[in-house]
């Protein structure tokens, strides 16, 4: 997975929170509550975690395959 290390807008480090955020939201916890608990308060930083899409598995699955 390719998670941005820093927020594109303010530069705060947010990449270290992604695994915990993903695990807790998959268990059904509220996105807002998880971000609050992790200390991600700025809207720009919240967007970095909330809008991230894990597509690296899709990319690596097709890498090097000749059709």
Summarize the entry for a quick read:
This protein has 67 residues and is mostly helical. It is built from 4 helices and no strands.
Keywords:
67 residues, mainly alpha, flat, 48% helix, single chain, 0% strand, Arc Repressor Mutant, subunit A
The total of beta strands comes to 0
Q: Strand percentage, roughly?
A: under 5%
What's the CATH class label?
Mainly Alpha
Q: Specify the CATH architecture.
A: Orthogonal Bundle
- pLDDT average, as an integer? 84
- Kindly report the oligomeric state of this protein: single chain
Largest sheet, described in full? none
Sequence-ordered SSE layout with sheet pairings:
Elements (H helix, E strand, L loop, with lengths): L17 H9 L4 H8 L4 H8 L5 H7 L5
Helix pairs in contact: 1-2
Describe the overall structure.
- The chain has 67 residues and is mainly α.
- It has a single domain, classed as Homeodomain-like (Arc Repressor Mutant, subunit A), CATH 1.10.10.60.
- The chain is 48% helix and 0% strand.
- It contains 4 helices and no strands.
- α1 runs antiparallel to α2.
- The mean pLDDT is 84.
């Amino acid at each position: 997975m390719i998670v941005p290390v820093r927020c594109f807008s303010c530069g705060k480090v947010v990449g270290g929170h992604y695994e915990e955020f993903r695990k807790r939201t998959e268990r059904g916890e509220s996105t807002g509550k998880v971000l609050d608990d992790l200390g991600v308060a700025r809207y720009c930083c919240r967007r970095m975690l909330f809008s991230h899409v894990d597509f690296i598995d899709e990319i690596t699955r097709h890498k090097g395959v000749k059709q």
